[in-house]
Amino acid sequence: MTLDTLILKSLRESETVSGSDLAEQAGVSRAAIWARIKALRLVGYEIDANPHQGYRLTAAPDGLHADDLLARLKPVKTIGREIRVFNKTASTNDIVEKIARDGAPEGVVVFAETQTRGRGRMGRRWVSPAKKGLWFSILLRPNLRTESATQITVSTATALARAISSVIDRKVEIKWPNDLLIDGKKIAGILTEMSAELDGIKYLVVGIGVDVNLSASELPPELLGIATSLRMVAGKKIDRPALAARMLEELDHDYSRIVAGQFRELAEEWENQCVTLGKNVSISIGDQRISGRAESLDVDGSLMVRTSHGRLERIIGGDVVVEK
Ligand code: BTN
Q: Which whole number is the average pLDDT over 258-278?
């Protein structure tokens, strides 16, 4: 744990903390603590210093800081063990892809305040204005067959839906496999990219984009009417670092369930929130188009679609349109 993480964690856990307690916990001098308090103030943390009572955190900046995100997390098993925050990058998926190839362990999370070449599914661009959303990617190395990679997208969606509902107290719907909606409009998407070998998944890069504090004018014009932001829905600004920490905890929790082979339980939760099941859908997979009724979720996370000919098709990816 870095010194900043230890300081911020202590300040969040108690109303006031004395410099000598912090120094003792960290095994450093009080002067070293004071130096870090001054540095934290420079990046926007408002910390009162009272000679009798000690330090008190009164406000935190809206910007993401790795040490602060780590300080906010309860102990995690995998996701969020290591967090990196970039101010600007082309795509967080590319950064994680690179560190995956360099052999980084699973659970590393990379955030960027803005992306210049954020990408969505189907080669679409993903607009990522600075400090308006949560744009991040996670490295995972699950022991799964490649066909089961959809399990990870499904568990990511349930975790994000739970985290978002807890912050804005609204029902979040899931559109298979990767869209999160409120009132039928998209607020978040997941882009899972995989590196695989014959015997299974080598690693997955799970990219997550959440439209948090965007205003209508910051959404791409072509998305008006089909996308929204949490701020627009809630009618107030959302605390991004708090939401980010909440998401990481839920993601870690649901990933642990997948690793423990509990996909079925998770799938039930998913099914309750899913707007795709029971509906007529049409799915484009490259040049192919399949239409039918979305019946259920299979054990590997695929969508089972009954076509008009009565055949049950297993869908593992593609662009799904839910017909009204
Ligand atoms: C979708 O099409 O719905 C998926 C969007 C995924 C966007 C996120 S933002 C962070 C990560 N980096 C990217 O370039 N894309 C994903």
A: 89
